[in-house]
Amino acid sequence: MQCPYCGETESRVADSRLAGGSTSIWRRRECEACNRRFTTYERVEYSLPTVVKKDGQREAFDRLKLLSSLQIACKKRPVDADTLEATAETLERKLAESGDREVSSRTLGEGVMDHLKRLDEVAYVRFASVYKSFRDIDEFMNEMTELVRSRPTE
After folding, report:
1. Nearest residue to 100 via CA among 48, 65, 61
2. pLDDT at residue 21, as a whole number
C-alpha cells in the first residue's frame, strides 16, 4: 500500500477490524519511511453487470453514483450514512449474485425505490419523482395514493 504522504510502498498494519457491517476491513497503517499513519479500507470487488440506460447506452455500474443518488434522496432525512452504505452494498451484492452480464437502469432504479420505501417514505418520494419523471400532478398523486395504501397498518 502506497503512503499518501511520501509515496513509500512499505507500510505495516497497526490495527485492523471489520467495518461496514462486516462487508469491509478497516486497517490503520504506519509508513515505514516517514512513520505517518493512514487508514485504508478493503472490500470485495464484485464482477458487476453493465447498466443499460433507457436510450440503449451502456455504462459500467458505478457504486459511487448509486450511493450519491441515495444520499440526495435522503438529504436532511433521519437516515444515517452507515445505512446508506449498507443499502448500496446490498444492491451491489444483489447485482453481482444475479450473474447477469447486463441490467437495465429500470431494474436498478426499482431496486433502489424498494429499499427507499422501507427506509424513509419522503426519500422514496424524492427518488421516485425524479426516476419516474411524472408528467403531471395526477401521476404524482397516483403514486402517493399507492404509497399510502401499501403502508402497513398499525
Report:
1. 48
2. 64
pLDDT of residue 20: 66
C-alpha cell at 152: 402497513
Crossing angle of helices 121-131 and 63-73, in 10° steps, is 120
Residues 61 and 101 in one domain: yes
pLDDT of residue 96 exceeding 70: yes
Q: Residue 100 to residues 19, 54, 94, 96: CA-CA distances in angstroms?
A: 28, 18, 10, 8
Q: Residues 57, 30: one domain?
A: no
CB atoms within 10 A of CB 113: 18
Q: Evaluate whether 60 touches 50 at the Cβ level (below 8 Å).
A: yes
In this structure, the answer to whether residues 78 and 145 fall within a common structural domain is yes
pLDDT of 57 > 70? The answer is yes
Per the CB < 8 A criterion, the answer to whether 63 and 50 are in contact is: no
For residues 143 and 137, give the distance between their C-alpha atoms in angstroms, rounded to a whole number.
10
Q: Is the pTM of this model over 0.85?
A: no
How many angstroms separate the CA atoms of 29 and 40, rounded? 7
Domain count, the chain: 2
Range of the domain at 74: 50-150
